[in-house]
């Protein structure tokens, strides 16, 4: 995948009272399957070696999951079957990502709640094996130690693109932890931790941070990353701040602050946020990044959620 652009947003910075530059890392423009951060993760999850003998991709998410959209697109591109285990029915299956899941040819399995998804994925994998096929089960959000390597690379891109090479405060949405884990690995490899504000879209801040650091530790054990001591991952991870102050009434439920951020990013930067992840992270940027130095907003995509 080609590097995504780092866009200056001087009018947005001026409007919200930031003396230093605001930059937007446009990972909404990763391109494949309508883009977003899941594309970087799936590049590693779906490497040629891992796809040997695979006939079907199986993964899980919510009824409007960005990850499920990109996985279904990847399956179609690779000529593979795809099963999506979704917790709950969409309000209208003909809108947003729910429409795209079906348009891309995925088989939909609906379960009652999040806790039922892992078992349903494994059950589908057994069904595929019983008919002579082989399923590759992809974790929620492609947030695995392998998938997080996509964001170790993204951090390197940001450092290379930012005038002066950084550091900058990175503001990033976070949920399943893979994107944040990759940034931690990237900073550890770089040898210099940057300030990071990760904004939870759903779970308590402590859970999000714990997941991310755990994934980063696991990634650090890969032979291609050695020598990357666990102590370095822990050192970088301690400096990462995660907030759940912008979740509001729950996952995917807009807040007044998020709606205001969506309006400001659109009118002052020409950048469209999504209501589930980036709008809430945008609200955090507006309210919490008033210290010295530039700010990089990592736009993780998700535009179809605007049309659900």
Characterization of this structure:
- The chain has helices at residues 10-15, 37-45, 66-78, 96-103, 117-130, 149-161, 178-190, 205-219, 230-238, 256-269, 278-288; strands spanning 6-8, 22-26, 56-61, 81-87, 107-111, 135-137, 169-174, 196-200, 240-243, 295-299.
- With 308 residues, the chain is α/β, with parallel strands linked by helices.
- The protein has two domains: 6-37 and 144-307, 3-Layer(aba) Sandwich (Rossmann fold), CATH 3.40.50; 47-137, Rossmann fold, CATH 3.40.50.
- The strands form two sheets. Strands 1-2-10-7-8-9 form a six-stranded mixed β-sheet.
- α4 (96-103) links the parallel β4 and β5 (107-111).
- α2 (37-45) packs across α6 (149-161).
- The longest helix has 15 residues, at 205-219.
- It is globular, with a radius of gyration of 19 Å.
